[in-house]
Every structure is written in structure tokens, then in C-alpha cells.
Model the fold of this input.
Amino acid sequence: MIETKDLTYTFPLSSENVLSGVNLKVEEGDLVALMGANGSGKTTLTRCLNGLVQPTGGSVTVDGHPLTQENIRAIRRRVGMIFQDPNTAITSPTVEREIAFGLQNLSVPRRVIREKTNMVMEQFHLTKLRHVSPMDLSGGEKQRLAIAAVMVLEPTYLILDEATSFLPSSSRKEVMALVDQLRLELKVGVLLVTQFPEEALRASSLLILHKGQIVQRGKPDEVFSKAEALEAYGVPVPLEYRLGIAGAN
Ligand SMILES: Nc1ncnc2c1ncn2[C@@H]1O[C@H](COP(=O)(O)OP(=O)(O)OP(=O)(O)O)[C@@H](O)[C@H]1O
Ligand SMILES: [Mg+2]
Done:
């Protein structure tokens, strides 16, 4: 489980908290959605969960291990991150080398790297594209590659920070189907930061972040029922909840 207790973050030289007293849990096989207006602190929160940002207060633990300088590498392996712009994650000249990259960094034997890379390319339907430059892929394919390159390290958790926001709707659905598959088949625990209410509806719980605080939490159906409150926080609400006809048919 990823767990935060009273997580607080203040940027250096700033007097305002970007995160204050955030408590959340993501269990294995779970899908937790996080929504909030621009600047509410979503990205900062995700960056605290794998040590990219050091909290100024409270705690983060991953499977009971506190995030410290000593275990940060182990925790980063356990908590995979997928970012909004797939271009920023790409570092290799081919799809195959992009997937192998993380394993090479861990000094895994070459034979194992080859085996695991082949397996993951099959699993994510990237084998045919193995010699293609990642830069030549479509946006949806790039995110599929980014997820494959993280999954080859066998993380227990996956954090997606608005990973579908640059994609056309058909690719968005594809990425979401992939995330569902990882969760159901491999029991990966997922934290999904999203601006799309239809994605949040698939989660087992939905958290709303407003000015660095969790102001609503619960089953997506319950949270979206408070449509007016959510809209005041700048969070989009599905049409059927805005009209008050959710579950009517
Ligand atoms: N380096 C920095 N120094 C000071 N404040 C910062 C810094 N980086 C971000 N902030 C502020 O922290 C707050 C939270 O930013 P963050 O990027 O976490 O929000 P977000 O919810 O992810 O927004 P978005 O929807 O735009 O992705 C914002 O008010 C932002 O202006
Ligand atoms: Mg953000």
C-alpha cells in the first residue's frame, strides 16, 4: 500500500503550503482517482509519492517502508510514474531500447534484459514497432510505450499524472483499457490523476484536491452527486450528475 499521513509541502522560499495534511491510501489492485483544478497540487502530490519531491511535513510510506534517501531507489522501482507529455519520458532511439533502458540501468544480465524486453513488447503489442523511433509513434502509442517501459521493471504501483490529456479520445480509451488490464491481471495499484470525469467514474474511490487539501472523497458516484460543490472547486462533473439524473436509466 502507498500511504500518506498528513502530507504537507511548501516550495522553498514560499510561505504558502502547496499541500496540507493530505491523507491517502492506494492498495494493490486498486484504482484511486484524483481530480482538482489547475494548480491545486496534483502533480506535486504525485511527485511526493516516489521521492521526486521531498515532503516538508507528514509521511509517505510504500508497503510500510518510509521514503528515505537510503531506500529511494527501491521505492522508485515499486512506484512507476507516467507523465502528461509522453515526449519528455523518451530517451532512446528505438522502441526496443526504450523498454530495455530501465533494466540496463539496474545492471541486469543481457540475456535477462533481452527476454524481459521481448516479453513486454509482446504484452503491449509493440513487437512490430521494435526498431521504430519512439518519436515517430502516435501519442497513444507513445503512452503505451511509456507504460511498457515502466512495467518491465515490475512495479507494484503505477501513478498516471494526466497521462491521457494530450491524446485523442480513441487513444484515451485504449490507455484506460490497458490500465484496467494491469490492475486486474497483475494487481497493480493505480493512482490516476485525471481531468476526465468518465475516467474517474471507473475508480473505486475519488479524491478531490482543492488548494492542496483533500476536500471530498468517496465512491465516484457519491462524490459526483455533489455536483455544485465540485464545480465550485473547478472540477468537471459528468452531465448526468449535473442534471441530477445519474443512475436514472
Ligand atoms: N517551483 C515552484 N515554486 C513555487 N510554486 C510552485 C512551483 N511549482 C509549482 N508551484 C505552485 O504549486 C501549485 C501546485 O502546482 P501543481 O503543478 O502541483 O498543480 P497541478 O494540480 O498539478 O496543476 P495542473 O492541473 O496545472 O497540472 C501551483 O499553485 C503552482 O503555481
Ligand atoms: Mg499537474
Observations:
- The longest strand covers residues 17-26.
